[in-house]
Specification:
Blueprint lengths: L2 H13 L3 H6 L1 E8 L9 E3 L1 H8 L2 H4 E13 L5 E12 L5 E13 L2 E8 L2 H8 L2 H13 L1
Parallel strand pairs: 1-6
Antiparallel strand pairs: 1-2, 3-4, 4-5, 5-6
Length: 144
């Protein structure tokens, strides 16, 4: 399966809240990086670590759609850059949720081998009701 098709399958599985199916799209030895992460891991190594990371995601975020998706092909057919928006609600608060992403996917042997997922930790914290905790942590780092 080519990279863009695999990405579309990933979106379908996220909408279906099938985190195991989503994780199965990744190679056993994949790497997943979140370069802007705060209060969450910045790097996951291997499909099973990704699976564990995502296990309770549907209990936190109820994704209901992807209103904006743009797939950019690169000179390497195994690599795509995707800009997309996820929309839904935060389960704990019931508040609306919208997050914009820019992600780089690399496919090897029909599976995602690498993902670099760029998202805003501030927007994520706001959506999950953890903005105060993030702010306190950042202020603590400044004072240290």
């Amino acid at each position: 399966m080519e990279a863009a098709e695999l990405f579309q399958r990933a979106l379908d599985l996220l909408l279906a809240k099938d985190m195991d199916g989503f994780a199965d799209l990744f190679a056993p030895d994949c790497t997943v990086e979140f370069p802007f992460a705060e209060n969450t891991p910045a790097r996951l190594t291997g499909r099973e670590e990704l699976r564990a990371y995502l296990a309770d995601y549907p209990n936190r975020m109820d994704i209901t759609g992807f209103p904006s998706v743009a797939v950019h092909r690169t000179t390497d057919p195994a690599t795509i850059v995707v800009e997309f928006t996820a929309r839904g609600r935060t389960v704990a608060t019931g508040a609306d949720y919208e997050m914009r992403y820019a992600s780089v996917f690399v496919v090897r042997d029909g599976a995602f081998a690498e993902l670099r997922d760029y998202w805003s930790p501030v927007r994520a914290a706001r959506a999950s009701g953890a903005l105060r905790e993030l702010a306190d942590e950042l202020v603590g780092e400044v004072r240290a």
